[in-house]
Amino acid sequence: MMLTVTQKNLLLEIGRDSVRFDEPMAAHSTMKIGGPADAFVVPRDIETLKAVMRFAVENEVPYITIGGGSDTLIRDGGIRGIVIHLREGFNRFEVSREEGEDVLILADAGVSSGAVTRFAAEQGLSGLEGLAGIPGTVGGNIITNAGTSLGWISNAIDEITVVDRQIRELTMKKKALEFSYRHLRMPRSTSVVRALLRLKRGDKAEIETKMNGLLEKRKTTQPYGQPTLGCTFRNPEKGGKHGSSAGALIDEAGLKGIRVGKARVSEIHANFIINEGGATAKDVEILIGLVRERVKEKFSVLLETEIHVIGEK
Ligand SMILES: Cc1cc2nc3c(=O)[nH]c(=O)nc-3n(C[C@H](O)[C@H](O)[C@H](O)COP(=O)(O)OP(=O)(O)OC[C@H]3O[C@@H](n4cnc5c(N)ncnc54)[C@H](O)[C@@H]3O)c2cc1C
């Protein structure tokens, strides 16, 4: 559904200079792909966020919140409705309090993962080492339960604050949240606005060594600095003789380097798809289908995508 002129004017009254129309979304995904969003809002504070969400609900306009776009494939037809981008206005973090060996950090959803993990390392705080080098924002990290074998963000969550479809600001303790592998159960209409992270005082040198090790590993085993969304597929629970690595299955199926249009399975890490320049979401989706088909034929394992796909074809 497209926004009417009246709706556009109303939205402009609410969001003023934080609202843009027909925003090319390729600029907001690390894959550098995506058609235009009808409206794109970067709320400057929580009151503006709530007002935009209230407008969307009352006018039955679809909306979605995004962060760094490092796990999101945006289709070529773009997004009908409103994209809420939490970044400026939601980019502060601070030590909230200390409880014995625990240090609690309050971080807005739009804070970049890099900023908060670097701060933790500098302060000798342990709990976020596993997130070293993961792009995106705290909000996106929470929704995707981002992490590595060294730990997921859910390990460090004490509580999160969200705004739901009824425009209620709710704070939920970790035990009320259903985190699982790369997932937090949460309606898409709910925006995560901030999180309280519970970190532990630790050995600064040890924390930095762990994080630097992860960063180095990324540089040698991943297509570093290229337009991608990281791992395309979730690691399957049962990968037969290849254990639980989607990348190993794709590699073993001989799919490294396979290309559709300008989208290619990375030669360096088979679970990464690279935009070689000018790839469309259609290229990527066809490539994903092809990889799934071949891996299914060869290993009887049906790969599921880890990336989030939004928008119109
Ligand atoms: C090079 C590279 C390496 C990567 N390595 C890893 C890795 O090692 N481990 C890992 O787990 N991931 C990895 N990723 C994937 C990605 O960085 C993570 O999933 C990250 O947490 C996504 O954060 P984001 O802010 O970019 O989320 P986005 O892509 O913006 O959003 C992801 C999802 O969360 C929703 N969302 C975002 N913010 C909010 C919010 N505030 N409220 C409600 N919903 C929201 C979006 O609607 C979408 O559904 C990698 C990606 C790249 C490009």
Please tell me about this protein's structure.
The protein is of the alpha+beta class and 313 residues long. The chain has three domains: 5-85, 2-Layer Sandwich (Uridine Diphospho-n-acetylenolpyruvylglucosamine Reductase, domain 2), CATH 3.30.43; 93-221, Uridine Diphospho-n-acetylenolpyruvylglucosamine Reductase, domain 3 (2-Layer Sandwich); 240-310, Alpha-Beta Complex (Uridine Diphospho-n-acetylenolpyruvylglucosamine Reductase, domain 1). Helix content is 27%, strand content 27%. It contains seven helices and 19 strands. It has helices at 5-15, 46-58, 113-122, 138-143, 204-221, 246-252, 281-299; strands at residues 19-24, 36-41, 63-66, 72-74, 79-85, 93-99, 102-108, 125-126, 147-148, 151-152, 157-163, 169-173, 179-180, 183-184, 191-201, 259-260, 263-265, 273-275, 308-310. Strands 6, 7, 8, 11, 12 and 15 form a six-stranded antiparallel beta sheet that branches. Strands 1-2-5-3 form a four-stranded mixed beta sheet. β6 and β7 (102-108) form a beta hairpin. α1 (5-15) packs antiparallel against α2 (46-58). The mean pLDDT is 96. It binds flavin-adenine dinucleotide (FAD).
